[in-house]
Design brief:
CATH architecture of the largest domain: 3-Layer(aba) Sandwich
Structural class: alpha/beta
Order of helices and strands: HEHHEHHEEHEEHEHEHEHEHHEEHEH
Distance between the termini: 24 Å
Helix content: 25-40%
CATH superfamily of the largest domain: Alkaline Phosphatase, subunit A
Shape: globular
Number of helices: 14
Number of strands: 13
CATH class of the largest domain: Alpha Beta
Radius of gyration: 21 Å
CATH topology of the largest domain: Alkaline Phosphatase, subunit A
Number of domains: 2
Strand content: 15-25%
């Protein structure tokens, strides 16, 4: 992992800029033996050119064989060991929508889902209902009250919402609760249980809220149920700018990724609604910051949908935007994913993630295309994602020499 003490000692301020382009869920799998992955099937002339000039590798977000969630996977890209800094999804969603989260608040990310006649989940995302439809359901859930706490329910995007419980002044709530989302169809939502004694009261309160919410939703279509996951409090992380001496900005359409950026102290910029909008925002803000985290969501969504061809198309759309990013003159550009989301599996997976590091100071490794197989033979090898920030800083000449 990035040694934060060492990074803060060696980090230097200069005019060299770093861009981290994250295609969420970039890694994939062939649909049949010997076939290409989504990245290998995509036509990516611009990324291939950068691959020929730069250095490739495969990054591991957590460890071998471990499928990561989006929160820990992004923290790893920023240099934070996700096994040390364990952040629940609820905090990221709340911060991502600009909610005024307080230290004692307990937040959870919610999904509207579809339940069949037997109370089993038939669609974990209720058909990815429109944000407007979800907001109308959230408005109805705001009527639920609980004893001794304030309850906040806010829409996020599409089928997602955030639930926050705020205790009375001087009181406290534990946040160690299990997820109610079994992450499988054909199963009922799980009951709320405390994982530590100090969270027993929270478990009782959340169970009461879920029961009332379910009564409100029972006749809705398709969102007649809900699940909760990622119960957490704001942990107060070390700040990105203090560690790396960087003025950092995040450009992300989906709220959760704005949340993880805000959690580490990045400025969150309004991204627009399209991939081209994100690059336009990057161009507008280029002079004001040293580091840019640009997040691309649809690669992950299409992988979760099991739509191989659609994921290929998104990768090709991103490739077309690369010349506009390179025209800004980054001293280092990293193109990677936070984890793999193979369309074959329709879920996050444990597979190492293709990573491209371009810089005028890169050592070319003789690999001329960007894909899983070529990255396996690249000069970066297979490495921990937490090493990516030191590599980017070094290539941007933003780390002083260590020792005499």
């Amino acid at each position: 992992m990035a040694d934060f003490r060492l990074m803060s000692e060696l980090a230097e301020r200069n005019d060299n800029k770093i861009s981290l382009l994250v295609m969420d869920g970039l890694g994939g799998l062939p649909l049949e033996p010997g076939g290409p992955t989504e990245l290998e099937a995509a036509r990516t002339p611009n990324l291939d050119r950068l691959a020929a000039e730069g250095t490739l590798g495969l990054s591991m977000p957590i460890g071998r064989g471990i499928s990561p969630g989006s929160g820990p996977a992004h923290l790893a890209l920023f240099g934070y060991d996700p096994l040390v800094y364990d952040i629940g999804r609820g905090v990221l969603e709340a911060l991502g929508i600009g909610f005024d989260l307080r230290p004692d608040d307990v937040a959870a990310r919610g999904n509207f889902c579809t339940l069949d006649a037997n109370g089993l989940i038939s669609d974990r995302r209720a058909g990815r209902i429109k944000s407007e439809a979800a907001a109308a359901l959230v408005q109805r859930l705001k009527a639920i009250s609980l004893p001794g706490v304030q309850v906040f329910v806010e829409p996020v995007k599409e089928h997602r919402f955030v639930l926050v419980l705020r205790p009375a002044r001087g009181d406290s709530l534990g946040a160690d609760l299990n997820d109610t989302d079994p992450q499988l169809v054909g199963h009922a939502p799980l009951p709320v249980r405390a994982q530590k004694p100090e969270s027993e009261r929270t478990a009782v309160l959340v169970s009461q809220w879920v029961a009332q919410a379910q009564e409100i939703l029972k006749n809705e279509k398709p969102a007649n149920g809900l699940t909760l996951r990622g119960f957490a409090k704001d942990p107060g992380l070390p700040q990105f700018s203090d560690i790396y001496k960087l003025r950092a900005a995040a450009i992300a359409i989906y709220p959760m990724y704005r949340g993880v950026a805000k959690l580490v102290g990045m400025d969150v910029l309004e991204p627009g609604q399209t991939l081209a909008d994100e690059v336009a925002r990057l161009r507008e803000a280029w002079a004001r910051y040293d580091f840019f985290f640009v997040h691309i969501k649809p690669t992950d969504s299409r992988g979760e949908d099991g739509d191989f061809a659609a994921k290929v198309k998104v990768i090709e759309e991103v490739d077309a935007l690369i010349p506009g990013i390179m025209a800004l003159g980054p001293a280092a550009l990293v193109v990677t994913g936070d984890h793999a989301t193979p369309a074959k599996l329709k879920s996050h997976s444990w597979h190492p993630v293709p990573t491209l590091l371009w810089s005028p100071n890169a050592r070319p490794d003789g690999v001329a295309s960007f894909g899983e197989r070529t990255c396996r033979t690249g000069g970066l090898g297979i490495f921990q994602a937490t090493d990516l920030m030191p590599l980017a800083l070094g290539h941007a000449l933003r780390l002083a020499r260590y020792g005499a």
